[in-house]
């Protein structure tokens, strides 16, 4: 087994879709949390394989998309300092703040470097002791252990020229916030499998119970997604609201204990601003007091993080699943991946970019249910 | 962003808990990843890699069970 192709079989996918059609008696709206899943669903046309009445809503699960514009402006301000080498995941470079993007800052001469891992940023710090190296630490629970390890290694080596601009976000509090909104029309969730490899799924039990909503931990391949949908819809039809694990080949109930221990040591849970959704309590990570010296906002204390300004873009509603990209008048016109107006267009995992790439014609863009 | 890819662990180097590394084969290319978070991983295991770190080891038995369940959906439908 290679653990990829087995989950892409077209005949099995059709059979799974038929099995779903066989058990559906009522319309249901199901939200996938993760942008990677959104991308896979639109790319493989999984939403179109489903019977009439099953609506897939795309959730806030793209860390690039939900990073607040003020953070991006702070990143640019740091990157433009002559002593700084600013390191970021590639997805983040084109995301607009209120003052352009990191990419445009690089065009003006800032030393902005794309890295694949936080450990790459650490290596750059070791190689450039005369420069200040800042890593833009974004991501969900999946990525936080990687950031934590960079901090643990930097601390052990006593690296004084490495710091982090931290904008890590946590999934369960955002799900809770979505469900608390009276306008929320989500009946079931596909929880993000890769997040759960780290955290496990015990945190989801109280959410499922409190809101009486099924939550199925789901993988990223077409058959994973279809099986996750099947399990979720079966629960809905049977009136159950449990946490189920479709992705048990990789997700254990307790998650990854070593990774969780590192995250708990380096970070503390705190309130966090989400682009388009505003502040959510307990939904982000900040450096714990023991590692606060690695906080770039402490090191460059003249740089402040501004508040989000309202604009034309409806990506906030897209992120909450309240509207679909096709509902936005700017979609594909004023707003394209080359000239994005909002973050859900700029990251390849944003719902607007996924629809733009795979569903260009207006008839295909989908309206919110 | 949470893109994570399964690959086969070819070799393990080092024994420092923070910097242990593995060579991992993904459909033809071989890359290195930090193994600090998968102390249980053995050569020959498939591991899931994200941002330079192996974050979970694939449970082959569970993988087979998932595929069997999918096949059952398929046949159950025809029965
Ligand atoms: S199409 Fe562009 S402007 Fe409209 S919601 Fe999406 S990102 Fe915002």
Describe the model.
The complex is a heterodimer of chains A (369) and B (79). Helices cover 39% and strands 19% of the residues of chain A. Chain A has 369 residues and is of the alpha/beta class. Chain A has a 6-stranded mixed β-sheet, sandwiched between helices. Chain A has a 5-stranded parallel β-sheet with strand order 2-1-7-8-9. Chain B is an alpha+beta fold and 79 residues long. Chain B has a single domain (5-78), classed as SH3 type barrels. Chain B has a 5-stranded antiparallel β-sheet, with no helix packed on it. The mean pLDDT of chain B is 88. Chains A and B meet through helix 1, helix 7, helix 8, helix 10 and helix 12 of A and strand 4, strand 5 and helix 1 of B. The structure holds iron/sulfur cluster. The site of iron/sulfur cluster (SF4) has 15 residues of chain A, from helix 15 and helix 16. Residues 313-315, 318, 325, 328, 330-331, 335, 340-342, 344-345, 352 of chain A line the site of iron/sulfur cluster. Chain A: Belongs to the HypD family. Chain A: This is Hydrogenase maturation factor. Chain A: Keywords: Iron, Metal-binding.
In the predicted model, the low-confidence regions of chain A spanning at least 5 consecutive residues are none
**Distinct small-molecule ligands in the complex:** iron/sulfur cluster
**Count of helical regions of chain A:** 17
> What is the CA-based Rg of chain A, rounded?
21 Å
Mean of all residue-level pLDDT scores of chain A: 91
Oligomer: heterodimer
Low-pLDDT windows of residues of chain B: none
Shape of chain B: elongated
Number of strands of chain B: 5
Provide the structure class of chain B: alpha+beta
Instruction: Strand order, main sheet of chain B: write it out.
Output: 3-2-1-4-5
Order of helices and strands of chain B: EEEEEH
Total number of strands of chain A: 11
CATH topology of the domain at 67-170 and 255-299 in chain A: Rossmann fold
CATH architecture call of the domain at 67-170 and 255-299 in chain A: 3-Layer(aba) Sandwich
Of all protein chain pairs, which has the greatest interface, and how many residues does each chain bring to it? Answer: A-B, 56 and 37 residues
Instruction: Determine the N-to-C terminus distance of chain B.
Output: 41 Å
Tell me the overall shape of chain A.
globular
Q: What is the number of helical segments of chain B per DSSP (H or I, 4+ residues)? A: 1
- Give me the side-by-side strand order of the main sheet of chain A: 4-3-5-6-11-10
């Amino acid at each position: 087994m290679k653990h990829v192709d087995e989950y892409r079989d077209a005949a099995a996918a059709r059979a799974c879709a038929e099995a779903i059609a066989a058990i559906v008696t009522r319309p249901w709206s199901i939200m996938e949390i993760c942008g990677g899943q959104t991308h896979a669903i639109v790319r493989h046309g999984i939403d179109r394989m489903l019977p009439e009445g099953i609506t897939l809503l795309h959730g806030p699960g793209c860390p690039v998309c939900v990073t607040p514009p003020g953070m991006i402006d702070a990143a640019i301000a740091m990157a433009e300092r002559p002593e700084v080498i600013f390191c970021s995941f590639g997805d983040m470079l084109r995301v607009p703040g209120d003052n352009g993007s990191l990419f445009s800052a690089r065009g003006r001469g800032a030393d902005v470097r794309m890295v694949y891992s936080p450990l790459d940023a650490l290596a750059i710090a070791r190689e450039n002791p005369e420069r200040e190296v800042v890593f833009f630490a974004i991501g969900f629970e999946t990525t936080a252990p990687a950031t934590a390890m960079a901090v643990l290694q930097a601390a052990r080596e006593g690296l004084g020229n490495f710091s982090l601009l931290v904008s890590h976000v946590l999934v369960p509090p955002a799900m809770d916030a979505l469900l608390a909104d009276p306008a929320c029309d989500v009946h079931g969730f596909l929880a993000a499998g890769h997040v759960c490899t780290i955290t496990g799924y015990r945190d989801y039990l109280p959410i499922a119970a409190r809101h009486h909503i099924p939550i199925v931990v789901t993988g990223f391949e077409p058959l994973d997604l279809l099986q996750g949908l099947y399990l979720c819809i079966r629960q809905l039809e049977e009136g159950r609201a449990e946490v189920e694990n479709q992705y048990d080949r990789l997700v254990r109930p307790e998650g990854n204990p070593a990774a969780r221990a590192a995250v708990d040591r380096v970070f503390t849970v705190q309130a966090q601003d989400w682009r388009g959704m505003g502040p959510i309590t307990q939904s982000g990570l900040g450096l714990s007091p023991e590692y606060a010296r690695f906080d770039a906002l402490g090191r460059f204390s003249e740089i402040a993080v501004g508040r989000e300004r309202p604009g034309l873009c409806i990506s906030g509603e897209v992120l909450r699943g309240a509207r679909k990209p096709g509902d936005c008048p700017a979609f594909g016109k004023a707003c394209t991946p080359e000239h994005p107006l909002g973050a859900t267009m700029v990251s390849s995992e944003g719902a607007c970019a996924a629809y733009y790439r795979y569903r260009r014609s207006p008839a295909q863009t989908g309206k919110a249910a | 962003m949470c893109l994570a890819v399964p690959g086969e662990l070819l070799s393990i180097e080092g024994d420092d808990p923070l910097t242990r590394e593995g060579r991992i084969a993904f459909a033809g290319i071989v890359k290195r990843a930090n193994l600090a978070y998968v102390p249980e991983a053995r050569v020959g295991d498939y591991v899931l890699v994200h941002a330079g770190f192996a974050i979970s080891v694939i449970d082959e038995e569970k993988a087979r069970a998932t595929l069997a369940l999918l096949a059952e959906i398929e046949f159950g439908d025809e029965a």
